[in-house]
Design a protein that fits this description.
The structure holds two protein chains of two kinds. Chain A is an all-alpha fold. Chain A has one domain: Helix Hairpins. Chain A is 70% helix and 0% strand. Chain A is built from three helices and no strands. In chain A, helix 1 packs antiparallel against helix 2. Chain A is elongated, with a radius of gyration of 18 Å. The mean pLDDT of chain B is 85. Chain B is mainly α. Helix content of chain B is 74%, strand content 0%. Chain B has nine helices and no strands. Classes of the chains: A mainly alpha, B mainly alpha.
Chain lengths: 109, 200
């Protein structure tokens, strides 16, 4: 439980911050109507996952640090995702002159 | 509790407060330009958490990639598509917000319960601290070599894809094509390259 940690900050504190960040990202992803804000929410969720990986890597896997390598890969994929996502957004904005998520309903049945 | 412990605790509290308040502001603020700048602050605070976790290399990578690249990219996208548009109201938006708030709150409670009640295998092996950068390099060039190379291919694909998607289709006006075709006839007309006034 909370007592058996070494440092002043227990592992659970990092997990709680990451859980809050992830839930905020999910809420923003569902409720944003601006398409740029949706991409920002996705970045928030990826950061929450990274905090989890880093805290586990420091507290439980302190000698091999596989979590840090994984979080570097996650940062790489997030950068690629942001570039492609914003390019898609620009071409969408060029075709239908809006960035309202509710008007992108071509695939709706 | 010595001074190092209390400093670490205070730093953690400040950084987590910045992260929580900043993420709420990113999602809830009306003006999206403010949201983008606050998102940069949240990324910096996450990099501070990485520093507290003895991971200086990943903290530097976080600042370079997120604050330096992704945030600037988001700001440029906002600048390119920034149009004050009147959003048409949709029926059921309030209901959707309420239901999604319930779902996200439930997810938060579930995650908190899991993280608190699980018996983590603590304390683990002692952290290697400042040797982490060398160890990451060893990992990237031995047992994680294949994902490392695949990440480079992924970045190349993302770059080409972004260029192809965001490129504006340029159409050459037909007059210019006709001019190119009639180049020979132009040269037959004996138009002087320099006007006579400039020769004097």
């Amino acid at each position: 439980m909370l007592e058996n940690s070494i440092g002043p900050v227990p592992l659970q504190a990092y997990l709680i911050v990451a859980a809050f960040l992830f839930c905020t990202g999910v809420w923003g992803l569902i409720n944003s109507r601006n398409a740029v804000r949706v991409l920002m929410s996705i970045e928030l969720m990826l950061n929450a996952v990274n905090i989890n990986l880093m805290s586990f890597s420091s507290y439980i896997d302190g000698s091999i640090i596989r979590g840090q390598v994984f979080s570097i890969f996650v940062i790489t994929v997030a950068a690629a995702e942001a570039a492609v996502g914003l390019a898609i957004l620009l071409s969408l904005y060029r075709n239908r002159v809006t960035i309202d998520m509710e008007s992108f309903n071509l695939l709706k049945w | 509790m010595n001074i190092a412990y209390s400093t670490e605790l205070i730093c953690f509290l400040i950084l987590s407060a910045v992260i929580v308040a900043g993420s709420l502001a990113v999602v809830l603020l009306e003006n999206i330009v403010y949201s983008a700048f606050i998102l940069g602050g949240v990324f910096m605070a996450v990099a501070g958490l990485y520093l507290l976790l003895n991971a200086s290399f990943v903290a530097a990578a976080q600042i370079l990639v997120y604050v330096g690249a992704v945030n600037v990219l988001i700001l440029f996208a906002i600048m390119l598509v920034n149009k004050k548009e009147k959003l048409t109201s949709i029926e059921g938006l309030k209901t959707r917000k309420l239901i999604s708030s319930g779902v996200c709150g439930g997810l938060l409670i579930l995650l908190l319960r899991v993280s608190i009640t699980t018996k983590w295998n603590l304390p683990g092996p002692t952290s290697i601290g400042e040797e982490a950068t060398e160890r990451i390099g060893e990992h990237l060039f031995t047992d994680y070599l294949l994902p490392f190379e695949l990440a480079s291919i992924l970045l190349l694909m993302a770059m080409i894809g972004a260029i192809v998607l965001a490129r504006r289709e340029v159409s050459i006006p037909t007059d210019d094509i006709n001019v190119l075709k009639n180049k020979k006839s132009l040269s037959d007309k004996k138009i002087p390259l320099l006007s006579e006034n400039s020769l004097k």
